[in-house]
AbrB family transcriptional regulator (Paenibacillus glycanilyticus), 370 residues
Amino acid sequence: MGRQAISESNGFKFLITLVTAVGGGIIFYLLNTPIPWLLGPMIAVLIGSNAWKGKYRWPRQIRNSGMMIVGYTIGLSMTGTALKEMGAQLPTMCLMTVILLLLCGGIAFAVSRLSDTDFMTALLGSIPGGLSQVLALAEETKGVNLTVVTVTQVVRLMIIVIGIPLLVFSPIFGQVHDAAAAAVPIAAKHENWAALFPNILIFAPVCVICAIAGNRIKFPTAFLLGPAISTAILQGIGLHGPSLPSTLISASQLMIGTYVGLLLKPGKLQRKVRTFSFAIVSGLVLMLCAWALSELMTLLHPVSRSTALLSLAPGGMDQMGILAHEINADLSMVSGYQLFRTFFIYFAVSPLLRLLLRIKLKSPRTEQPQ
């Protein structure tokens, strides 16, 4: 009876959480905000769980399922065209990515010195990766204030999503809005579930196995990168990975956003006004730095200023890809640069962050008096 009561209680908490998350997603979708099914559930559950404490529950396994779906979609982006583009411009990609990350490190150092935020938290808040991916990395990094990272990343994302289109369509870049082109990505998000079969019966189990295996061997963000790498390999040997229906992609965002919403602890966010102020300023500085690097890129390669800006913009690959399609920019170059930065962050920056954290944790012991 005791176990049954606990199970029923957990089921009721899960139902409350699901209803709250879906409601938040619907509200943000109707408000036409960016990534509504990630931000909506996150904020709705954050509010609900703090107003009604102890009544919310969201199993980690559901979040991991969402991460696997996101990883699969990243793997789909690693097409032959994108990989060729990455190979042809690998030196420039490395240079631009390293410079951008060094600038992020400088911004994080300034924020940590001017506020009471520790450097690791400020650095993860400044890293220009996808929101769900960076939050997963922050959760796995001990000693990091996830709430501060989330606030900083969400503010940065809003600045990029709003600021980059305004900049691209401004007289500085001279781009013209093409409604017909913009409608294509939306129309492409069909709900043809039958198109998933039969290949999804191969991709799905392989993604799950690689995610679980990667987690067992302590691979960084295994539930994201495992499916991404395995999907890219399967496509590389000739199998076609079917595109996912938009409903499933939205569901994956809800799975991740709801989990993150329950992790956030606003009570631990000290000096809220200062935190938001630094997040806004650092986001604007990061966008201006990306703009400056894009001007340098046009000097190194015969690409348009808009293509260069979208390639280096510290936003999500999906948003920048849609915008690139709308203005007829070089979509393969934009996807290649964005994809390279995403993988560079997880394979190079993630181990470096862990090394810095170990050094930080050891330093107090070495400083203790003998």
The CA atoms of residues 44 and 216 lie 33 Å apart. The longest helix spans residues 331-367. The radius of gyration is 21 Å. The chain is about 75% helix and 0% strand.
